[in-house]
Design brief:
This protein is α+β, with helices and mostly antiparallel strands. The chain is built from nine helices and twelve strands. The structure holds copper (II) ion.
Length: 382
């Protein structure tokens, strides 16, 4: 009797736990709702079978409990019962496996418009590579890996020059864009997993694996990347972040990342804040950069590097501080204060071409347009 009660409690508590457990799925953020459906279907089939068998055991333990006068029948075979059990088990197993096969077929066939990205794993961090403007990855080999060639790029393959290499903790992806993810490992077995994306894949030393997914949800907080394969002492620290952005924000971010050619040349691209980046894009499309450089060279107009907050000598012999008011005046009415040594070659821009919001972005650009040498002391400060 006691055994039957304990069994019954186990069944009831297990079923209740499944529904009221604090460990539920995270809110999905990819196209792989079908992976959830397959898991949920398997869960229901197993759950129902578990509950039925449990209750059946409770019933038999109670019904056939020990009684002095009771005698057991000898019945080693029961073809009718065996047929039933075989048929029901087969239906259950097929119901669990068939949907998985359909989803797996989808899983291994990336859509044609998928963009490629590579995930490079090593103990204990993630790195990423985008194929760059030509859409083609350069070839790689583990033998090429050195501290200044962390991806093992093949230096004689021109396809690799524009490959974008991300060694930061956070990678950005565009929402609603399918990605085919290639995986490589530099050392041991790892597994790239973002729980909200559901899909995951092993990265295996010596071979290249892949999977695909489409991020579908923009969220303020980036999604956490985990390694889902015990890969050594610091496995638990092998984390990273995926920020899902709008297409435009993603492009802006990608354009600011280092290419392989830049890495070889030791060029670290300048990373602007979002407002300054808008100013940068505006200056480019409006033609300001035809006369103003960002690298310190004087062109038709003065450079914008390291000018914010400095004193400007004007042609009329006076000086002025480069601040908000001066920049606004220089754009709206450039010939009122002509910089010494330059011709009054700039035409005034009114609201219709350069709005106040554009000027705000341009001012932020000037503020952030500081050369590395000038920036160093502030960086060193705590
Ligand atoms: Cu790992």
């Amino acid at each position: 009797m006691a055994v039957a009660i304990v069994l019954l409690i186990i069944v009831i508590v297990s079923v209740l736990l499944s529904f009221f457990s604090p460990w539920q799925f995270t809110e999905i953020a990819s196209n792989w709702g079908n992976i959830d459906n397959t898991v949920i279907l398997t869960f229901w089939i197993c759950g129902v079978v578990f509950a039925l068998i449990g209750v059946f055991m409770v019933y038999t333990t109670w019904k056939f409990r020990y009684r002095k006068e009771a005698r057991a029948d000898y019945e080693p075979e029961n073809p009718r019962l065996e047929w039933w059990l075989t048929v029901i088990t087969t239906i259950g197993v097929v119901a669990m496996l068939a949907p998985g096969l359909i989803v797996w077929n989808d899983f291994v066939n990336a859509p044609d418009d998928a963009q490629e990205v590579e995930v490079l794993s090593r103990q204990w961090q993630w790195a990423y590579r985008f194929p760059g403007e030509d859409g083609k990855f350069g070839t790689v080999h583990v033998d090429n890996i050195t501290s200044d060639n962390p991806f093992g790029m093949n230096k004689s393959d021109p396809n690799g020059d524009d490959d974008v290499l991300i060694t930061a903790d956070t990678v950005h992806l565009a929402v609603d864009q399918p990605y085919k993810v290639w995986l490589r490992s530099n050392d041991v077995l790892h597994d790239f997993w973002v729980p909200e994306f559901r899909a995951k894949m092993d990265s295996v030393p010596g071979m290249v694996t892949y999977f695909w997914f489409t991020p579908t949800r923009i969220q303020e907080k980036p999604y956490e990347v985990l390694c889902a394969e015990l890969c050594g002492q610091n496995h638990f620290q092998m984390r990273g972040w995926v920020k899902v952005d709008t297409r435009e924000d993603h492009q802006t971010w990608l354009a600011g990342q280092q290419t392989w050619a830049q890495m070889q040349a030791g060029i670290v691209p300048k990373v602007y804040g979002p407002l300054a980046q808008r100013g940068r894009d505006f200056a480019e499309t409006t033609g300001c950069l035809a006369c103003h450089s960002l690298d310190g060279t004087a062109m038709i107009g003065p450079t914008w590097l390291d000018v914010w907050g400095t004193e400007r000598a004007l042609a009329d012999g006076t000086t002025v501080t480069v601040d908000e008011a001066y920049v606004i005046e220089s754009i709206r009415n450039p010939n009122s204060q002509v910089v010494e040594g330059f011709a009054a070659a700039m035409v005034p821009y009114d609201e219709s071409t350069v709005s106040d919001a554009d000027i705000e972005a341009l001012i932020e650009l000037l503020k952030e347009e500081v050369s590395a040498a000038a920036e160093a002391p502030t960086e060193a400060a705590p």
